[in-house]
Design brief:
Three copies of one chain form a homotrimer.
Chain A: E1 2-8, H1 14-27, E2 40-44, E3 48-51, E4 60-67, H2 72-90, E5 97-104, E6 107-109, E7 112-113
Parallel strand pairs in A: 1-2, 4-5
Antiparallel strand pairs in A: 1-4, 6-7
Helix pairs in contact in A: 1-2
GO cellular component, one term (chains A, B, C): extracellular space
InterPro entries (chains A, B, C): Macrophage_inhib_fac, Tautomerase/MIF_sf
Pfam families (chains A, B, C): MIF
Chain lengths: ~110, ~110, ~110
Amino acid sequence: MPYINTKTNTVITKEKEIEIKKKFGKAIELIPGKSENWLMVSFEDHCSMYFKGKSDDSMAFVEVKLFGSADSGAYNKLTAAITKILKEELDINPDHIYVKYEEVSNWGWNGSNF
Amino acid sequence: MPYINTKTNTVITKEKEIEIKKKFGKAIELIPGKSENWLMVSFEDHCSMYFKGKSDDSMAFVEVKLFGSADSGAYNKLTAAITKILKEELDINPDHIYVKYEEVSNWGWNGSNF
Amino acid sequence: MPYINTKTNTVITKEKEIEIKKKFGKAIELIPGKSENWLMVSFEDHCSMYFKGKSDDSMAFVEVKLFGSADSGAYNKLTAAITKILKEELDINPDHIYVKYEEVSNWGWNGSNF
């Protein structure tokens, strides 16, 4: 039950989007017990965004939400992986990428909660 | 002070939107002390989304945010209600719907926090 | 590492957007240790939103996410400031503005977590 949303001020072509979701589907395995089998992914491109008061450079705000929790080492590895993917695919500089984690206690699927 | 955001890859017509927000306004009463009187609702349709690596089927990611907390039984009932509403109104299969809860400690309205 | 997202059903012109982000960059200093130097800001305007079942009036849902935590007094001051800014710049009534806080334990930047 992980979910990853990527918000960016740059444009994501359909080709890039497919490449990124494929790589995210692999990267999520860095969190023990998680896989693409339960992963939902969404993209918001061309957003109005500012970092340090400026909007000239490409930037991204990535939110990873997951049922339960994991240790900080796993999150750290996932941050490295997600950052690398966004640098490779969208050429966003790592120092313009935030990756934020949310551990969720109540999460529903198929009409009832886990 | 509850808030429900629905993110989906399908289209929500204005008629459907009004129907869904009306039903959400009723469903939120499943959480003790909450009602449409304090409910804010938002919709994001036609989003770029993938579940299990695929984007062919309709899907939704629903976020329920509320001030304070409730017991897991109430959340479970709300998940059932929201899932039913999205199946009825948008024909999204329940196994393609995530409903995620966030309990919030600091929440402001009208210029100051509760 | 703070982040502020503003979601509203009204329109935000580029001029207003720049004014708001400038004021947010100052307001964030109400949280000890935070400044525009680490602030990411995003805007979503013209959203489909309802408050108390109605969509006729302008409204906003503001999410403030920050690494670590602060005391509730600081959050309260920031709510007052953000509400004032949105009233001034977008003429949204304070009783149609929610400001919600999320304290984050795992937050990555530049490829690794803080």
